[in-house]
């Protein structure tokens, strides 16, 4: 019997509910169309449709946690998921929902310009969308939709990881969350007497190290046979690793001391009592590759000014999702679909 009184937390729908919805209301529709190569599935970053000589990769994702630079966020979070499939992003649409009481022409122009400039920089064509003033909103929401193309032999699936593969992480963790906190909690950080330099560094995580994985994903797929790539977003690195393992039907062992937590994210974790492994991490990229090639992949990434580290190994499913601490103790990798940042926003 369904419990209609179930309460839900802000953020991603929990995997157990999403799996049920997909099973009950999506699987039969996917199965009726043989051109759908990848449809709705936990962990996969985008849908894949057979267009004959190439695959079309389709993604949609909203921006709900921030208003500052919302157009830049909207384009990049969708680009990240498309390039994680090995595809080149091509065509972008957006639905822009604006609050009834505090929308101005300057706000609308800022969002449009941000989307335009971001797409232009990545040679993506804006092909349409929808804009409206909506009841019940106190902040803008932008829902992006992106289409890309990939040669069939270069398609990368989140579900492609296999036991024995190395798991490589680029840049570190808590990148997007750091930028959002710097922008949305500037007044609070100032009140706590953090310097303007510190706050500006946090804000600038949007660009440096940056929330985009465009360069590193396409670079990796160009030079290597990549088994799996995944973009950790809500729920942070831990949730991203779990989604990769769920999609691939595997386990994983993570070396916790190899995960790079940069100074500003580490400080914000202390200020707001956040777990950096469970906080928004757009800008990080998880790559599963045959272990024999992991060192060479890391060299190529570093040569192109992208920090990278092997943080673990894909294991068989029965090994579970585990993490080893600095003292060698192994424990379950705890993850949640609810992002840590919801505690403070």
Brief synopsis:
The chain is an alpha+beta fold and 345 residues long. 33% of the residues lie in helices and 25% in strands.
Strand % is 15-25%
Order of helices and strands: HHEEEHEHEEEHHHHEHEHEHEEE
Highest-level CATH class of the largest domain: Alpha Beta
Name the CATH architecture of the largest domain.
Alpha-Beta Complex
The CATH topology annotation of the largest domain reads as Phosphoribosyl-aminoimidazole Synthetase, Chain A, domain 2
How many domains?
2
The shape is globular
Which sequence of strands runs across the widest sheet?
8-10-7-11-9-12-13
Determine the number of helices (DSSP H or I, runs of at least 4 residues): 11
Radius of gyration: 20 Å
Mean pLDDT: 94
For the sheet with most strands, the description reads:
7 strands, mixed
Portion of residues within helices: 25-40%
Number of strands: 13
Decide which structural class fits the backbone: alpha+beta
Description:
- The chain has 11 helices and 13 strands.
- The chain is an alpha+beta fold and 345 residues long.
- The chain has 2 domains: 45-154, 2-Layer Sandwich (60s Ribosomal Protein L30, Chain: A), CATH 3.30.1330.10; 158-343, Phosphoribosyl-aminoimidazole Synthetase, Chain A, domain 2.
- The strands form 2 sheets. The protein has a 7-stranded mixed beta sheet. The chain has a 6-stranded mixed beta sheet with strand order 1-2-3-6-4-5, covered by helices on one side.
- The longest helix is centred in the N-terminal third of the chain and has 17 residues, at 105-121.
- The two termini are 34 Å apart.
- The model has no long low-confidence stretch (mean pLDDT 94).
